[in-house]
Amino acid sequence: MEKDTQISLTPKGIRNRNIVDEMKSSYINYAMSVIVARALPDIRDGLKPVQRRILYAMYKLGYIPSKAYKKCARTVGEVMGKYHPHGDTSIYEALVRMSQDFSIRYPLVDGQGNFGSIDGDRPAAMRYTESKMHKHALLVVGDIDKQTVDYVPNYDGSATEPQILPSILPNLILNGADGIAVGMATKIPPHNLGEVLDAITDIISKGNQEIFKKTSIDYKKDIKTEEDLKTLPKQRFPKFKTEIELNELMQHIPGPDFPTGGSIYDKKEIELTYATGRGRILMRGIAEIQENKNGKFQIIISELPYQVNKARLVAKIADLIKQKRIEGVSDLRDESNRLGIRVVVDIKRDGKPKTILNKLFKYTELQKAFNANMLALVESEPKVLNLKRFLELYIEHRQEIVIRRAEYDLAKSREREHILEGLMIALDNIDEVINTIRKSKNSDVAKLNLIKKFNLTEIQAQAILDMQLRRLAALEREKIINEYKEIKNKIIELLIILTTPEKVLTIISEELVLLKEKYADKRRTRVYKGGVDDFSDEDLIAKEDVIVTVSTQGYIKRMKMGVYQIQHRGGVGKKGMTTKEDDAVEHVFKCNTHDEILFFTNKGRVFQEKVYSIPEFGRTAKGQALINLINLDTDELITSILTKDKEGKVLDEDILQEGEEKTEKEGKDYKYLLMATQKGIVKKTLLTDFANIRTNGIIAIKLNKGDELSWVKPTTGNNEIILVTRHGRSIRFNEKDVRSTGRDTMGVIGIKFRKDDDKVITADIIRLKEDLMLTVSENGFGKTTVLDQFPLQKRGGQGVFAARVNNKTGNLVAARILDHPKLELLIMSKKGQAVKIPTKDLPNRNRQTAGVKLMRLKSGDNTAAIAII
Q1: 121: pLDDT confidence band, cut at 50, 70 and 90?
Q2: 720/736 Cα distance (integer angstroms)
Q3: From 92's CA, which of 31, 319, 495, 789 has a CA 20 to 30 Å away?
Q4: Which residues are catalytic?
């Protein structure tokens, strides 16, 4: 009975086969079907089969950008019924993704209705949503009606579908791709259209101009009708190759350009990705620390890494706050709307915004890696391709499309030329043609008589019979002649294209230029050449001198050198900075955008930052809170600032030496940093101890309770130091009196105070005895004094007078050494007034004098800071 059942199921007999071999064969067939027919995109048009079928179906149905939206269910039904019998869900999901501007860089479907969101919301059912082709999609299907691609039967043989789409758009490299096949997967990042087109144009200009071999095709004889195209060989040119280097391509394409913006890091990893087709590109969202109207800080997240779900990100942040892995957050809310993403993290008054932001990058998808695997189908074979090969294969694809389009146009032109030649014969013999037709029994006989009498072809004879009588008019006759001339010229142009390799490349380049002019947009993703911890965009920053100001409350900004004009002593000055009522300008110094700044705080710590990373503001703006740049405590203030050049040499804080040559002085090769605290403590530490400064800062000096670091100066080891106090006392001593100690140590006494409320306001280096000491008081009085008047003493004494202070002058606020005859003094007041004075206009007075009025201050205002420029 069992044997009879087996025979009835297989009437041709039972075939014996090893089950292992059968499983292998079946699995390989299944795997290849998934790889080729479902999961991987084709290198030429950058589409998977379902995407290609959706666009083709929409094009055939007439759902073009200029027409009305149609229900998605109609498109899905057409695709499933004719081309893709794999279920409506997969088709609709592919259609939806092609319309999402956060999923695809250049959308191919224009959707109307709920098509999902970056929060992971599901789209509405296909019966509710509507769609049509996006303007970008027309660039993918363009010229498809000119036999530019081959067609194959659909799944049931009832219709045909294109194997590939012509695609003038380099879609795969522009929109990228994600797909999981069997045993392999693809993950190609999206790119910017303008950048990619520039790179392709550059490749074409540097490519091998002899890319075509001599062909045996005689376009003058072999192509006369549309049918003749079918006899032509498919491969009519060798593969395009160029000797262009990767670094040349990356001048055009610095990195991927994700639809959600954000930032990417590490040029080396991007180069590796482009060179091998595989790599790990680190992405970060855009998050900035801002201060609200209440004086509290917020972290504002405005852009996300590619493919990050915003709702899950917010939930993850909330979970981290709940678990107390992130502390110092008072509130978290999502304020995103149709205008853009805005996730707000409110920081408590005692919270550390920079620390919280770093934890967000570390513990959430605000920082995420894009693991690129640039795998695509090349002639139905999956291959991992580098960037150069991606672009070369696109050019090969466009070569074939341009040639096939020209061949089609040539065939159509030849057909029209043939008809026009027949019409002109008829017009030249119009009376005989009319008599011949009149004498014929019917149209078939008339056609045969015309063919026989005037040596016409059947097509020409039929065209004459179909010709309307109005074409016999003089103007209509002239139109036919002109059309014939135009057709002849067009045929010549097409023959030039088909027989000149360089012409084909020129056409491709010209099309790309037009494409860029019409569709190119700005890059959304910022690219940094370094890693997250060491990235630098220095190459993008102009090297120029700037002025940097820092306020008492920690607001910093940089400005161009020309924002202040030279004025004479006693002027009112210009508005230099908008400050809060309890804020004042504390530091003003000149530096270069490529320099590094060392920030020393009142707590004895030191931080490091690039000058170009400081935001540039106008003359009257208050600037940005320093807490955005460096990880300060809430009660920590910047008290001293130094700059370092690219070679690591420390520069004088605010001395600009330009113009005439000056005498060489000591202080060129600094070895130490000398620090002075408000309570008169001094300390000397090797400069090399500050070579590697962590993001969270390092300790520069250990302080006594209640003391603060107030001044830091570079020294050579043989300099003389002068300290000046707010009550006008000063002491000058040799730095050899201060023994060098490590960073995490306390100093020694530099000066003793006569009054408890006195404090150090300045520590400076003496290079030449002929230099001048400048002192400026609270009420705008100032003077210069020759340094030779300050006696050399041992450290630890009470010192001598630097200036007489009284109620009229107020206490001293600043003192500087002037070591060049052509300098300028910039004075800024607490309320932001500024005046710029040549130092040659300053009066020279003895130590024990008060000086003269340098700046006329408004009521309630006082001098805050000075800079020597």
Answers
A1: very high
A2: 8
A3: 31
A4: 128
* Residues 193-235 pLDDT 10s: 999 999 999 999 887 544 444 444 665 565 556 566 556 655 4
Partners of residue 491 on adjacent β-strands: none
Determine contact, residues 71/130, Cβ cutoff 8 Å.
yes
3-state secondary structure at position 78: helix
Residue 538: pLDDT band (50, 70, 90) is: low
Separation CA 748–CA 688 (nearest Å): 21
Q: Does residue 168 surpass a pLDDT of 50?
A: yes
What element of type H or E holds 479?
A: helix 474-499
363: buried, middle or exposed (CB in 10 Å: 19+, 13-18, 0-12)?
middle
Average pLDDT of every residue of the chain: 84
Q: Which residue has the higher pLDDT, 729 or 13?
A: 729
pTM for this model (two decimals): 0.68
Residues 6+ apart with CB under 8 A from 479: none
Residue 766 parent element (H or E):
strand 760-766
What is the Cα gyration radius of the chain?
40
CA distance 193 to 176: 12
- What percentage of the chain has pLDDT greater than the value 90? 40
Helix (H) or strand (E) holding 259: none
* Secondary structure letter of residue 839 according to DSSP: G
Whose structure tokens read 């939930």? 315
Nearby residues of 541 by Cβ (< 8 Å), 6 or more positions away: 593, 594, 612
How far is the C-alpha of 146 from the C-alpha of 152, rounded, in Å? 16
Query: pLDDT tens digit string along 134-158?
Result: 999 999 998 999 999 999 999 899 9
Amino acid symbol at 433: V
Q: Which region, left, alpha or beta, applies to residue 370 given φ > 0 means left and ψ of -120 to 50 means alpha?
A: beta
Angstrom distances, CA of residue 174 to CA of 105, 250, 305: 7, 15, 17
Question: Tokens 């807490």 correspond to what residue?
Answer: 627
In one-letter notation, the amino acid at residue 437 is I
- Yes or no: say if 817 and 655 are a contact pair by the CB < 8 Å rule: no
Reduced to 3 states (helix: H, G, I; strand: E, B; else coil), residue 247 is: helix
Reference 588, options 637, 625, 641, 542; nearest CA is 641
Given this model, what pLDDT does residue 229 score? 57
Which residues face 560 on adjacent strands?
546
Residue-level pLDDT at 762: 84
Task: Write out the E strands in 24-153.
Answer: 70-71, 109-112, 130-133, 151-153
For residue 258, name the pLDDT band (cuts at 50, 70, 90).
very high
DSSP state of 448: H
Q: Which residue segments constitute the domains of the chain, with CATH numbers given?
A: 19-192 (3.90.199.10), 286-365 (3.30.1360.40), 540-657+669-868 (2.120.10.90)
Q: At 340, phi and psi to the nearest 5?
A: 155, 180
Copy the structure tokens of residue 689. Answer: 């101890």
Strands 160-162 and 151-153, sheet pairing: antiparallel
Kindly give the residue spans of alpha helices, DSSP state H, lying in 346-386. 353-363
Instruction: Determine the Cα–Cα distance for residues 283 and 526; give it in Å rounded to an integer.
Output: 10
